[in-house]
Each structure stands twice: as structure tokens, then as C-alpha cells.
Specification:
two-stranded antiparallel sheet, alpha+beta, single chain
Length: 235
């Protein structure tokens, strides 16, 4: 039986001239956690195509499915985009992660109604709000913090936010030049320190390597037409 619900185990015993009965309820649950299957395809105009939806080994009364049709193959990214747009946390890193794809796929976000949980705000509004959050979380030295009301700078998040702001400006959004410049200055300043970290491998071996923020920072500076050639040469 592939149905879930409540099952009953009945035990009846005849002994000593009497009849004894015991009923035990047993919860019937799926043998595994939530599973998902996806598929995709294409069809040319004027043709027909049959799309079989197979339940296979899934329990019928627990199955749900969605069929998404679009003129753009980008719709195949919908599942990943939905996860990003509706990510439940509001730190700077996740705010940028949510708004970044909407720079490019805003129309699709609105079309698929991925902004339901945000009071039906459209993609442009989400991007503008992300820019505002970054500005509110910037410190005097140009770095940004992960959360409101803190004074602890985050190197990686600052590079990530600067990358987003550069792309947002390229996409036509109004981004304060002073906001971007102070962040780029901070990234340049961190690169002057020639920082390294200790990388452990093979259990008992280690070596010094450049932090991931270094390569990313150099890339973002190059995007802004401010390449730090000495740092590139050093690393």
C-alpha cells in the first residue's frame, strides 16, 4: 500500500474461554524525505508535443507538479531563481544574492510571480531597496557590514556588494558615485596589505595562500576600470 495515513494493527487472542482484542494505531509515513524531479524540452511553432507526467514510485496523494511554458529557455533557471529571490534572510550578502539575478531576469521574476512574499513588489523595486540597504550599512572606511546597527566590516561582502552596484549602474539604476568609490577605495586599501591565510591540506600540511577576497577584489576593480596592477603582479 503506497498511501500514507493511519494504519491499525489488530491482535485477537482466544484463551481460557475468553476473547482478548488489542488495537494499535500505526502512523504510515513516506520512507524518505521530500524528493523532486525536473525535466525540460523545446518545441517549434505550429507543432504538438505530448508531455507525460509520471508518478513512478511517488505516493499519489502526496504529489504536486508544475508545468511552466515560456518563449525563453532561461525559464529552466526558474527553480534556482525562485530560491534566490525568496531567500528568507536579510543580511547584506543574501540581500545582494536576491537582487543580483533580478538585474537580468526581472521580467521573468515578475512573470512567474516570485515576489508574492514581498507584497508584489516588482524586480526594479527590489533592486533599489538592495542599493538602499547597502548604503545604510556602509561604514566610514567604505566597507559594509552584514547587518544593520553593527560596526564590524566584512571584506567579502564589501567586494560582493561593489560588484552588484557596478552591474546595477550598468543596467541603468541610479547608484551614488561616492558609494561605489569609497567601496573600491576600501578594496584597494585591503589589497595593499598583501594578506595571506594558512591553508591546511593532507591533515598535517599547510601553506600560505591568498584569501578568496583578493582574487574577487582584483576582478571587481578591473570591472570598474581601476585595475590594481601591483597587487596583480604580487599575487
Amino acid at each position: 500500500d503506497k498511501n500514507i495515513g493511519v494504519g491499525k494493527l489488530m491482535i485477537t487472542v482466544n484463551a481460557l474461554g475468553e476473547k482478548f482484542t488489542d488495537a494499535t494505531e500505526i502512523s504510515v509515513r513516506p520512507p524518505s524525505t521530500l524528493q523532486k524531479e525536473t525535466g525540460s524540452g523545446s518545441i517549434t511553432g505550429g507543432n504538438k508535443q505530448r508531455i507525460p507526467i509520471e508518478f513512478r514510485d511517488f505516493m499519489r496523494n502526496t504529489v504536486n507538479y508544475n508545468l511552466v511554458v515560456s518563449r525563453s529557455p532561461v525559464v529552466e533557471l526558474a527553480g534556482h531563481l525562485k530560491y534566490l529571490v525568496q531567500y528568507p534572510y536579510g543580511c547584506t550578502e543574501q540581500t545582494v544574492s536576491s537582487a543580483f539575478p533580478q538585474l537580468y531576469y526581472g521580467d521573468m521574476v515578475d512573470m512567474m510571480q516570485l515576489n508574492k512574499s514581498q507584497n508584489k513588489l516588482n524586480a526594479n523595486t527590489n533592486i533599489i531597496e538592495a542599493i538602499r540597504k547597502i548604503k545604510m550599512r556602509q561604514l566610514y572606511n567604505g566597507a559594509v557590514t552584514l547587518w544593520d546597527g553593527t560596526d564590524q566590516e566584512d571584506w567579502w561582502t564589501t567586494v560582493y556588494a561593489a560588484h552588484f552596484l557596478l552591474e546595477a549602474r550598468k543596467a541603468g539604476f541610479d547608484v551614488d558615485n561616492s558609494l561605489v568609490e569609497t567601496m573600491l577605495n576600501y578594496i584597494n586599501h585591503r589589497l595593499r596589505n598583501k594578506e595571506t591565510i594558512l591553508y591546511y591540506y593532507n591533515r598535517d600540511q599547510n601553506k600560505k595562500i591568498a584569501p578568496k577576497e583578493v582574487a574577487y577584489g582584483l576582478y571587481v576593480l578591473a570591472l570598474a576600470n581601476r585595475p590594481n596592477v601591483p597587487a596583480m603582479n604580487y599575487y
